[in-house]
Design brief:
With about 325 residues, this protein is mainly alpha-helical. It has 13 helices and five strands. Strands 1-2-3 form a three-stranded parallel beta sheet. The chain starts with 5 loop residues before the first strand and ends with a helix. The structure holds adenosine-5'-triphosphate and L-tryptophanamide.
Length: about 325
């Protein structure tokens, strides 16, 4: 019997993967992969809470699988799957809808943000998004959910839903913990460093994608917004642009903030921005090259997601059966 602890995480294929999703989430998935039994999904069900072009959604879902693997997730060791191909998620999602309160969902920051940005399409799925996310996590009895800072609130709600259910029916669900990186939990836009770098907002040059070519990456960093001072030091409040670049550089090179401060003491922002760009180019180069190679092999990709869905479904069914029995559905 495999006694290892379990990880579940996922990303919506709502845009091309960004430096933010890599640093905030995927990089940690890769680092944790050896110690846990891991499930990583393409959250396509969650993606349609915002209107998607069907052909783009399909293309991005496949590209995302190639990028997960290229980042270092071995499909032989990790279960990599597409959320919509494991129907148990939606089955449990409905049950959990009935154990999630209107007030709780109304307080979710992501719901408020997305409603403001999509005022013409505030649909029920956008509202109940967190109960489906809770189902994603609880159905595998996950111990740990590695995500960026913005998803912490959803994991906390997942714990509340699980606790509520367990209080009524006994110990059905394990309570999961969020796993949030110390540096890079919230990478900001290079153009508007007050805002999170986000893959559905790639137009203004503030976003770097994993598949961007070196020239595009260098251009984005050279244009990155800083401030009117000249000194490279960490001050998130007053120097959001520079502090963001320091976080990115720290993750890409392994240097501490102090070492970065020393390295650039007396030098201008121009130098600093070029160095950050170069470090990111080198960090992403092997990922892009490997992802392009994998994406060309359609048969391999299909094998990965078919086997992934089978393994995921097998694990998910166990929890779903238990839940159906507990709530009183005829077996
Ligand atoms: P969208 O713009 O469609 O909402 P997104 O760019 O915010 O997408 P998600 O799919 O919501 O990306 O996030 C994928 C994972 O990466 C999540 O765990 C999220 O917390 C993390 N993440 C996303 N953007 C960042 C960021 N800028 N900094 C740190 N982590 C991030
Ligand atoms: N809500 C997440 C994507 C997501 C997820 C999950 C993350 C859907 N289901 C389960 C962790 C665990 C997002 O917007 N990034």
């Amino acid at each position: 019997m495999d006694e290892r602890k379990i990880i579940l995480s996922g990303i919506k294929p709502s845009g091309d993967l960004t430096l933010g999703s890599y640093i905030g989430a995927i990089k940690n998935w890769v680092e944790l992969a050896d110690q846990y039994d891991c499930f990583y999904m393409m959250a396509d069900l969650h993606a349609i809470t915002v209107r998607q072009v069907p052909a783009d959604l399909r293309r991005r879902t496949l590209a995302q699988i190639a990028q997960y693997i290229a980042c270092g997730l071995d499909p032989e060791k990790n279960t990599i799957f597409i959320q919509s191909q494991v129907p148990e998620h939606t089955q449990l999602g409905w049950v959990l809808d009935c154990y999630t309160m209107f007030g709780e969902l109304s307080r979710m920051t992501q719901f408020k943000d997305k409603s403001a940005k999509n005022a013409d399409n505030i649909n029920a799925g956008l509202f109940t998004y967190p109960s489906l996310m809770a189902a994603d996590i609880l159905i595998y009895q996950a111990d740990l959910v590695p995500v960026g800072e913005d998803q912490k609130q959803h994991v906390e709600l997942t714990r509340d839903i699980a606790h509520r259910f367990n209080t009524i029916y006994g110990d059905v669900f394990k309570l999961p913990e969020p796993f949030i990186p110390k540096v890079g939990a919230r990478i900001m836009s290079l153009q508007t460093p007050e805002n999170k770098m986000s893959k559905s907002e790639t137009d203004n040059g503030g976003c770097v994608c994993l598949m961007d070519k070196p020239e595009a990456i260098m251009k984005a960093f050279k244009r990155a917004v800083t401030d009117s001072e000249t000194s490279v030091h960490f001050d998130r409040e007053n120097k959001p642009g520079v502090s963001n670049l320091m976080q990115i550089y720290s993750v890409a090179t392994g240097s501490t903030f102090e070492q970065i401060q020393q390295e650039f003491a007396g030098k201008g922002y121009g130098d600093f921005k070029v160095k950050v760009g170069e470090a990111v180019v080198e960090m992403l180069r092997p990922i892009r090259e490997e992802a392009e190679r994998i994406l060309a092999d359609k048969a391999y990709l299909e094998k990965v997601y078919r086997e992934g869905a089978e393994k995921a479904s097998y694990a998910a069914r166990k929890t779903l059966r238990k839940v159906y029995k507990k709530v009183g559905f005829v077996q």
